[in-house]
Amino acid sequence: MLVAGDDREHLQASTPMTVVAEEDRVRANVYALLGNLLAAPPDEALLAALAAIDPAPADGTLLAASWTMLRDAATRAAPAAVAGEYQDLFIGLGRGEVVPYGSWYVTGFLMEQPLARLRADLRELGIERQPGVSEPEDHAAALCDVMSLLIAGESSVPLPRQQQFFAHHLEPWVGRFFRDLQQSGAAHFYRAVGQLGEQFVEVERRAFDISVPAAGTTPARDS
Fold first, then answer.
1. pLDDT per residue as tens digits for the range 74-90
2. Does the residue 122 lie in any domain?
3. 222 lies in a domain?
4. How far apart are the first and last CA of the chain?
5. Is 147 in contact with 121 (CB distance < 8 Å)?
6. Which of 40, 117, 155, 194 could form a disulfide with 181 if both were Cys (CB 3.0 to 4.6 A apart)?
7. The whole model's pTM is what?
């Protein structure tokens, strides 16, 4: 699996590395890939790597189908065309077709209370932006990078804390963002990115619901 390179990471942390289960490392790598693709358009090497993906067995799930869609989209894509698509989608003249910020989706405005709450959580977790990064921390790419770090990076945390961060800062809006990305008229390669993102975060949501008991409840015991 692919992970974001140092030049694409939005955040850094300084706590000791912990041992990570293979399933969690896969999760972290998917978040890192999404962060990489949302932070900047893929170059020729990344497109080639995506085109060589060996998708999971066709088990009938939308997530499995989305990996095939991404592989096929990367096979057809040219770096210059994808760079232009990225420009239209996320930058544009003043604003792109899709606004990749949590504050925008939650409040309709940029740099609002959701960003302030996110920054407080990041400080508590010991995570900070790398020097030279100007994007606010509630950019979808940055949040995917944070989830990758929380799962398998130097700042890895227990599953309940991962779920808490996900529920507070991604779940309220990121599914809608990925759907908007798929529906944008400018999206071609990024339609497949949006499909993967939407299906992956839905699998994450369901897995958290199963694995992390709701606050104030007691897990059921086997009889």
1. 999 999 999 999 999 99
2. yes
3. no
4. 40
5. no
6. 194
7. 0.86
